[in-house]
Structure formats: C-alpha cells, structure tokens
Design goal:
The complex is a heterodimer of chains A (280) and B (132). Chain A is α/β, with parallel strands linked by helices. Chain A has a single domain, classed as LigB-like (Protocatechuate 4,5-dioxygenase, Chain B, 3-Layer(aba) Sandwich). Chain A contains ten helices and ten strands. In chain A, the strands form two sheets. Chain A has an eight-stranded mixed β-sheet with strand order 6-3-7-2-8-1-10-9, with helices on both faces. In chain A, a hairpin with a 2-residue loop joins strand 9 and strand 10. Chain A is globular, with a radius of gyration of 17 Å. Chain B has 132 residues and is mostly helical. Chain B has two domains: 77 residues, Dioxygenase LigAB, LigA subunit (Protocatechuate 4,5-dioxygenase, Chain A), CATH 1.10.700; 41 residues, no CATH class. In chain B, helix 2 runs parallel beside helix 7 and helix 8 crosses helix 9. The chains are: A alpha/beta (280), B mainly alpha (132). Chains A and B meet through helix 7 and helix 9 of A and helix 2, helix 7, helix 8 and helix 9 of B.
C-alpha cells in the first residue's frame, strides 16, 4: 500500500524563485532565507519520495477570473512551468502521477469533496518555488508531483476546517492506494503577509509562531480560525495558511517535528518552513 | 448596492470578494491580457487605445493610465492581476506596496527589514480614526 511518510510546508514567494534563477542565493539579503533550507536539502535526499501531493495556489496564471475552482486536482502526466509575464522559470517540467491522481480524484469525490479535475494546466511560482527550495536546481525533479490548486484569490477561500477535513480525506485515499509508493504532502503559501492597500507590509510574528506550534501539536485548534481572523491577524494574503491545514489533516494526529524555520522578511512576506514526520 | 461586511472594519485593506470581482472583472481581465507579449507591445504603443478594447468604466481606465494602484483596487482590481500591469512596467511587488502605503521604497523596505508592519494598532478602523 502507499504510505504517507511526511509533510512539509513552505512559503512560495516569487522573489525567492527569482533569487534562485538569477544566482543570488548567497547575497546578504537572501542568504538567511536559503540557510533555512540547507537542512531540508540534505534530509530530502534520504527520503526516496515517489510522489509529492503539492498544495498551492495559482496566482492569476492558469486560472483567470473566467474560472475559479476552489479545489483543482492536477491529473495530467506533466505540467509546464508557466510564463507569468517575464518568461517561464528555467526549471524542469513537472511530471505528474496520473494513476495516483485518478485514484485521489475518485476517492475524494466519493468522500464528498467535490473537486475540479484538471488535465491541462501550467504551474506558476506557487508550485515551482517550493520545489526549487527543497530540491535546488536539478536537471529533472526527482519525484512525481500531483498539484492541488486551492482558490485563495477571490474571497472566500475554503475554510480552515474544510481544508483540514480535505487533508484527512487525502490521508485516507493515499492509504487505500495499492501500489507501495512513498508519498509526501506539501502545504505552501503564507505565512503572514499583506500585499495591498495602506496596510501592506503587515507581519504578525506572534500569530505565525502560534500557528506553527498548534500545527504540530493541536491542529484541531486551528480549524476554528475564521476567514475574518486570518484577514485581520495574518493579512489579506496570509489567509493562504489554510493550505497548510490540508497538509496537516493528511498526517496522523501525532507527528514528529523534524525541522522548523522562520524568517522575516522575504520581500513582503514572513517565510515559514516546517517538516513533519508522520511516523512519530 | 454593497452589503456591509465584517471585514470592512480592517483598515487599509480591500477584500476581493465576489462583488468586487464582478465590479473589477474587465479591469482584471485586461491585466491578465498583458501576460501575452504581443498584447504588452500593443498596450505600450498606445495605452488609451488598448484600454478602449476592454469594456471598463472610465474611472477604471483613468486609474490604469495614472497607475493609481489604490484607485484600481477600490474599483475592483486584485493585486495578483494588477501585478501583470506593474510587471509590464518593470516594477516589483515591493515597489508598488510602498506606493500603496504612501512610503518611499527605501522606507518601506527598511520597515520590512525591521520585522514588517505590526498588527498592533492596525486591526480595526477605530484604531486608525486619528489618522488622515
């Protein structure tokens, strides 16, 4: 049977992708950001991950206002890095896992999560920056990736509780897949940040650190955070943190924290990164 | 007519809800069109003419031409769509964030280096009532 071995979260700030692509990771501004991923790059090498279910949001790239799926599961064999207006990032094509994705789609819909199935989709920095942070700059990504795009652009995004419950359903679906795959779930985006209006630049370190603590030890407590509280406390874009709850819901109640990293600022954002082992 | 929402109380923040998405639909889709290099060239050749091809309000067109970012957001623009416009201008998120907050880019970048804008004093309109 497939095994969900671990979960990981990270912010997906586009300027981080630009820093990697332009060779600026050792610049004084960026070096502290990338230092938090040195452990991760070592650790991931020993994990032999077959598939990553990568929860992220599209930033008006694959989905304009013409079509706004709340949860969109990428079921294709491959996904091209998107041209976000300045040419695609120079990163490998993202290879999917259509068999596991099809199993997930069928299991989740029967489990009453009404997903959108996507068979053609370019993937933007929301998905490729986390891959670059964890795997660096390989010629090909060393694992298959199943993108799960979540709408957090047009309010309201799915609630914290709904995301956590979807994660639980993903955990059940992975456990019922007959092939012996080693699977990770990544939740991306966040932490606190606001990119718009006179309150732009908001960072709430107390909120972020409490979110980290509870995500490890008592994630149920986070499911009562309302959309209003996310907006007010973590900024209008900090509400992306609901995606971390999909990751956490997929794991067991008890997990072991392997690595935790927090740094302000990465451009306009509080960068957070966490690795959780599912075999506590 | 717009119904009051609980998040209207968050100062300096415009939540991109379904009503604003409707109001800003063509403004945002215009921005989306700038993902295409040919469209970017046409827009740069004549911004006013290009905008006439989109069924936007005159106020929206004026805000685009003036690069009035807060104005575009007030008229239904969303920051991720507006990023296509400022990227076409060669500007960064941080450049535009500084303008929206009324800071110089240097002062804004320094605020971020010092830990960002605190939530304290920035949670509710009541806390901003003495500000201009």
């Amino acid at each position: 049977m497939a095994e969900l071995i671990s979960g990981l979260t990270t912010s997906h700030v586009p300027a981080i992708g630009a820093a990697i692509d332009l060779g600026k990771t050792q610049d004084p501004y960026w070096q502290p950001v990338f230092s938090g991923f040195e452990f991760t790059k070592q650790w991931i090498g020993g994990q032999k991950v077959d598939v990553v279910i990568l929860v992220y949001n599209d930033h008006a790239t694959a989905f304009s206002l013409e079509l706004i799926p709340t949860f969109a599961l990428g079921c294709a064999a491959e996904f091209q890095p998107a041209d976000e207006g300045w040419g695609p990032r120079p990163v490998p094509v993202v290879k999917g896992h259509p068999e596991l994705a099809a199993h997930l789609a069928q299991s989740l819909i029967l489990d009453e999560f009404d997903l959108t199935i996507v068979n053609r989709m370019d993937v933007d920095h929301g998905l490729t920056v986390p891959l670059s942070l964890v795997y660096g700059q390989p010629a090909a990504w060393p694992c298959k990736v199943i993108p799960l795009a979540v709408n957090v652009i047009q309010y309201p995004p799915p609630t914290a509780r709904r995301c956590y419950q979807l994660g639980k359903a993903i955990g059940r679906a992975v456990a019922s897949y007959p092939e012996p795959l080693r699977v990770m779930v990544w939740g991306t985006g966040g932490m606190s940040h606001q990119l718009q209006g006179r309150r732009a630049g908001l960072i709430n370190q107390a909120f972020d650190n409490r979110f980290f603590d509870l995500l490890v030890s008592d994630p149920e407590a986070l499911t009562s955070i309302t959309p209003l509280e996310f907006l007010r406390e973590s900024g209008s874009e900090g509400i992306e943190l609901v995606m971390w709850l999909i990751m956490r819901g997929a794991l067991n109640a008890r997990v072991r924290q392997v690595h935790r990293f927090y740094h302000v600022p990465a451009s306009n954002t509080a960068l957070g990164h966490l690795i959780l082992d599912n075999r506590a | 007519m717009r119904q009051p929402q609980p998040y209207d109380d968050i100062p300096g923040t415009t939540v991109f809800d379904a009503e604003r998405a409707r109001q800003g639909y063509h403004l945002n889709q215009f921005c989306m069109s700038l993902m295409n290099a040919g469209n970017r060239a046409a827009f740069k050749a004549s911004e006013a003419k290009y905008l006439q091809g989109w069924p936007m309000t005159e106020a929206q067109r004026h805000a685009v031409l003036a690069r009035d970012w807060n104005g575009m957001i007030a008229l239904g623009g969303n920051i991720y769509f507006l990023s296509k416009l400022f990227s076409s201008d060669g500007k960064s998120f941080q450049h535009v964030a500084a303008i929206m907050t009324g800071s110089s880019q240097e002062a804004y970048a320094q605020m971020m280096l010092e830990g960002g804008r605190s939530p304290d004093g920035n949670r509710s309109l009541a806390e901003w009532k003495d500000r201009g």
